[in-house]
Amino acid sequence: MATIYDVSQRAGVSLATVSRVINKNSNVSEKTKQKVLAAMAELDYRPNTIAQSLASNVSNSVGVLVSQLDGPYYGPMMVEIEAALRAHNKHVIIAVGHSDAAMEQESVEFLISRGCDALILDVEAVSDDYLVKLSQGSMPIVLINRYIKDIEHCCIYLNNEVGGYLATRHLLDLGHRDIAYISGPRYKHDAAERLEGHRRALAEAGVTFDARLCVEGDYKEASGEIGMLALFGTGLPFSAVVCANDQMASGAISVCLAKGMRIPDDLSFVGYDNVPFAKYISPKLTTVNNPIHEMGKMAALWVLRHVYQDEATHVDNVFNPDLVTRDSAKAHI
Prior knowledge:
single chain; 434 Repressor (Amino-terminal Domain); 3 domains; 6-stranded parallel β-sheet
């Protein structure tokens, strides 16, 4: 097996020069760099990254823990994380927690065992106390889409309560008073905060919250369908529906269309997240913008600044949502 010494001999350069090429140091001429790369190819030499990390105490890898891999929400986030880190010659190791506390903790331990330099965590089931304690260890962590006051410096989050408020406030401004709500799983922090915003908007407008017009989903299309059927099953009148994410809104609207209803003439809808398909379905969905891709990028920049000491990197910790008005909601006469 070829060694770095063999490469230096074949290329006719010093060990230090080979090391600079391997570490992508710019202080090497292009001609010398190509000589070293050619020698590495001829000898089939590959740097031992494990040995390098042991020697430098830096693995140049970042662990990323997400709740799931499917759906239109997490993909854009992971794309931005990977792109921002790759631009600085860092790599990601991905694990999935499936919104289960035991699996999330197991995944955290796995990523730590892989020698990651930091962890980017999108976790929903583990407790605040667990995350506070984790942050006090030797492994730097940054949280996406979750706010914990005691460690707010390492939280990248959206003001979901304001987002929930904006969605319902829009319908109230259009004259709706009987507004149904399909929530996400209420144990999830973002779902609970969005529902709080919905209730605040109703209270501000003097409209009593009716628990019978609030059903719980799981953020997937099928639960939007089930929730919509449950709302119809109450027999109560309502002219508009707020859905805690766009996927459930899509499922709910499909039930209405199957019944021959016209959206928004017969029923208005507002979603949440502004995922890509929201502007392509018919009618185009009015929704609350959730810049998850930007939060992913900021989490990566947080790591670059606080772990890899890139002081020039600017990090925004808090994002505020905004309403994206399209065609699925209209004035109620």
